[in-house]
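Table 4 source record.
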Amino acid sequence: MTQAQSLPLPVATASIADRSSPAWLGGLQDLVREHAFEPLRVEGRLPQGLTGTLYRNGPGRFTIGGERVPHWFDGDGAMSAVRIEGGRASGAARLVRTAGAEREERAGKRLFGGYGTPLARPVRELLLRDGKNTANTSVLLWQGRLFATCEAGRPYEIARGDLSTLGESSLDGVVAEAFSAHSHRVPSRQTTYNFGVTVGRSTRVDVYALPDRGRASRLTGFTIDGARLNHDFAATGRHLVFAFAPHYLSVLGMIFLRKAPVPSAAWKAERGTEIVVVPIDEPTRLVRFKVDAFLMEHVVNAYEDGGEVVVDYTH
């Protein structure tokens, strides 16, 4: 077993003020030091020939103007990386400099709500779509470019050399408003697929194709009734599968009861979960049907078995 770490640790665990605290607590505290790639001490020996870079993204700043956001998912994104090359290891860690984070820095206070954080300016955030993309959930490496992703907005491009933020990207005008954190690559097609959800009186879903070579494109789109979220989807060699649970966000709850977006939602089991299947070769010929209510949070695996599409997911 080999382990790479730094002295002092330049990643999230360095933010633990009390060294007697459990290590996992570092994932819930602010990143205290940002830096480009620095040498890491290697304990043990790295396997011969092992080379590459492991990128990770997650919430890395929870305190805004002296106020701590109350939900883990709402911290500003922080990219980290461990690079192994020539028998040596180096590491880097930086916050994602999103437009929303910089606006809050200038204001010295919280300006936005999020997944589990009440909206700061409900009318402006809801009606004028003046929200915050924390870019804090996952990473996408596409055609040599690195992106920090979060379903609340477009991807943020990150410099692979030092993890500095290059800026929000529409992938050359393709991404409308949102881009999910959980893209899926289909090796047989040499293409990565993803989607974006725009929430309103009804919910618009845009489906994207990102080929290993060539330009990104919008594959298709469809709408779902009501204001709803969707975090993940499944991809097989021939189909993309979406499951929309009957979990409806409440605009009135967010404005008048000051509930955070997801806690404002009502579960309406009698409406069932709507399944939408997109045939990749004929993306406009959607197959839609309803089943008993359930919520699919993350997809574990998906494949085709004869005439069946099989999806393994967390329920």
